[in-house]
Every structure is written in C-alpha cells, then in structure tokens.
Give the backbone structure.
Amino acid sequence: MAGGNLSPRQKMINMMYLVLTALLALNVSAEILEAFKSLRDSLAESAESFAEKNKDTQGGIKAKIEEELGQGNKKNEYLMAITDAVEKEANGLIAKLDSRIDTLEGIAGLDKETGEMHNIKELEKNYRFWMGNDAANGGRGDGEAEKLKKELDGFVKWANDFVKSNKLLVKVDSTGKAQEAEDLFKPMCHDHEGKVWEYHTFHGKPVVADLAMMEKFKLDVQEIHSDLLGLVKAKLGSVTFKIDSLIAVDAPVSRVVAAGMKFETKLFVAMSSNDIKPEFLGSGVTTDKGGNSATMTFTAPGGFAKGQTEKEASYHAVIKVPKADGDVAELKVEGKYTIRKPEVVITSASVQNLYANCGNTINVDCPALGEFYSPKFTATEAQVLPSGTDKRVITIVPTGKTCILGVSSLTNGQNIKIDDIKYKVIKPPRPEIVLEVLGKEYNGASPIPAKADCKVKIRPDNDFRNALPKDARYVVDVIDLLSARSLGAPAKVASFSGNGKDAVAGVSVNLGNSLKGDPPGTKIFFKIGAVYRMNFQNKKIEEQFGDRDLYIGAIIK
C-alpha cells in the first residue's frame, strides 16, 4: 500500500485488515473486536521493530560518513543532511499518528494502569472524531480524516519528490542516458466506488479497528522510511554495521487461532543485512524469498475439556546466524498463542426449540473456519438429513423430548469437535377444526339450509404453517352426519370419506338429500373422525382432540 515493493509480511497484514474489515461489515462480534485488538498489537510490535531497524540503519550511515570524514574523504558528506531530512519528515508524521492514537485510546476508555480498553466498540464518538460535520468539504467532513489523508498522501508526494530532487534513484536507458525515475511510492488514500476515502474508511467502524489502522499507517510510513534510507545507503556504498547483539523476532498473524486452523508467525533477525544469511529451524518453518526471514505455519490442535472455550499453546524455533568472526549464533524463538474453540452460528425459523416429527431445517455455520469448514453432524433421538446442495444445511427430525446436535469438522486432517447444541423438542401447535356453510365460516348460532353445501376444514396454526409448510398438512379419515330426529341420541344419516383429500382445503359435506324429511329446527351434528398431520416425509401422525372438539352442532331451517 505504501512502498513500491511490499514485503510478504506487509501483504499478509494488509490482507488480514481487509478480511477483518469485511467481517466487521457483517457482524460486530466480540471475536472480531478481539481480533482487531490482536492485529493492533501485532502491527504495533512490527512498527516498533521497523522503527528500531531504521534507527540503526541511519546510525550506520552516519557512522560510515564520519569515518570517511575522519580520513579526509568528503565525497559523501552531503548524504548526512539527506539522512537527517528523511528522519525529520518520517518521524514528524509518526508523531502525528501517535497523537491520534492517544485520542483514540481515550475514546476507547483505556485504563493506563491495566492497559485494558473498556469501550473498544465505540462508533459515534470515533466517527465524529474523524469526520466532524460529514457533509462538509464535499462529503469529506471537517474532522481528522481529511487532515490525515493530506498528511499521508503529502508524505508520499514528498518522498517521491525527495527521491527525484536528490537523484537517489536514476534509470538508464539502452543508450546509457540517465532518465528521471517514475514515482516509487503510490498514494495511500484512494476514493472507492464513488465514495470519498474519508467516509469509506471511517464509516461504521468501532474505535479498535481504527487503532489497528493507525498502527498499519505507521508501518507503511516506516516502510517508506526504510526504502529511503536504503536508497541513501546505496548512494553511500557498502555500509558496515557493528552488531553488538542479535535479536530473534517473531510476529504472529494473530495470537488467537481457531482450532483446526493454521497458526502462522513470521521469524526474522533484528539487524539483519544482505551479508547475513540466517538459517531458520523449527516445525512448520519455511524460509521466505531473499532468505532473511521465514514463516512458521502449523495446524492448531483441537481437544477441549468440557466447558472449555480456549486454551494456551506454545511454539519453538531456532535461528542460526553467521557472525563476522566465523562463529554461528543460535537464537531461540519461543512464543505462546491461544487456541479458541470455533463458535457455531445457527440459523433457522425456530432456533431454541425443534418441532417433533417435523423437518426442522437449520443452517449450522462456523465462520472462524471459513472455507476449511467441513461439518459432520450427529443427533440424539433424532434423524439428521443432510442437504444435497449446501454442507451447512441439515434437516433434523426429532422423535424424543430433547435433542442434542453434535457438530464437528474435518479440518486440516483433524476431526475437530466444535460444540453440542441442546434443543427442547415440542409438539406442533394443534390445528383448529372449522365448518364452512355456503363458502362462509359458520358462526355456530344461525340456522343453516337443509340442503346446504358445507366443508369441514382443518386450519393449521399460522406461525407453524409459515415456518414448516410441508409439515402443516392435515387429513381426516371420515365425517359422519348425525340428526336428532327423536328424543333419543342423534343417529347417523350419512358418512363422507376424507381419504385422499386435503383437509386444509376442506372436505365437502353436501347435505343434499341426507336430511330429507327432517323438519326445520332439527338439530344436526358433524362428527369428525381421526385427524392426522402429514409431515414432510408423508408420515401420518394422529392429532389428539377431545370428543367434544370433534363434534360441530347446527340447526337446519
């Protein structure tokens, strides 16, 4: 983002920041906020390490110039002022970034004694600090964001102009003629898809994200700083550094990693140079291009105790560095990191409860594992049916009173147990039996025509039908028509089969000639037989009704 050639570590950090920002747009979870805290700490360590490296480089350049001056050689004396100018400009911008970091830490509620920040997700104060009146200056606001953009892009412009004006980088064409070099460094702040940089960068982000971004900008500035000193060093010639001590440094991508995912850390030697070729040893260590750094990568193991959500683990490496006297220094790297149990995210129409003997379709995701998520499911007192199109989607058909869904993932060659989710299993809401007479719902009081067209309908609970329409289908076996023609018990005068008929749409009961000879005022009854619910597998489950619920009375006219 800053220099012409980004290091592998810088590319990795930039990608991490983009991924976290994208996740942030979806869900400001505690895990993402903690990830930003870890990223901020890692970036701060890297920026500090880079600053020390640049300080040593500057000291080495000056020491070489002073040595030459002591020998009466003033050829490179002019580089002393150039080196000072680089230091002044870079450190001046770093100081401005540090000042903003202090303000952001105040917004985040930093306790200076404990180092804890109690309000890392603050949005509004953070946004106003950066944007102020966000309608001002064509949407760029009048806060710190506009000033920051001018400072960052101004520093890049200064660096490019500085390189050209001091002829630190000169191209030579095929004829041997010197040409002015193109811009070495690219601007840091770009408008994005019609949105100004200020709004696009600071809208909707918690303060902890911008703390991480400030450390990233410091790292960008230090990288340009380093490149400029490298150009000065090239002008000077071979600079010999006196190395009093060597320090092995590692910079993890994150100190917290989900079980089953890859832990990755950068290994390098402070004060390394092109003349020093360190050897990196350790499980999962591969040497980077150029040979002066390495990347350690290995799979974080699973295996959590009951109730445990995270655990601490350690890693080790050795860096062998040849010394000027021909000896080899062995530098040990030891670090610790936290393995976090991946979090399961459940999405369904009814997350807390499952309906008995129904197709409860749920989405079981584990965002922390990303594309490495390869789920395996088990369930007690239930059938688990996988989706044919989406590995995250399953259908649970419970048969007991409770169901425990076990979730694991075959990730990076390990079967990682993720979680057990306990569900309460409930019966679907009982449907309602209604009678329609001549297309209208019967009110239970008005007399009905003796030859009326009637329908008996089974009406599902509305919420249940919306959630599980394939499980909210009903049938009845038979409907008997009874008539109280005498002082005795009502007698059956006709039967109407419900076989093969959708009782939700209604089973027709045409009185027709069934009540022939029954005078007006006669009491009749619609006696409903067994009522069954058809689930998504076309399995019949009998609904439990009381005897009184299965009789609907009316009077004919």
Observations:
- Confidence is low (pLDDT under 50) at residues 172-178, 238-242.
- The longest strand covers residues 310-322.
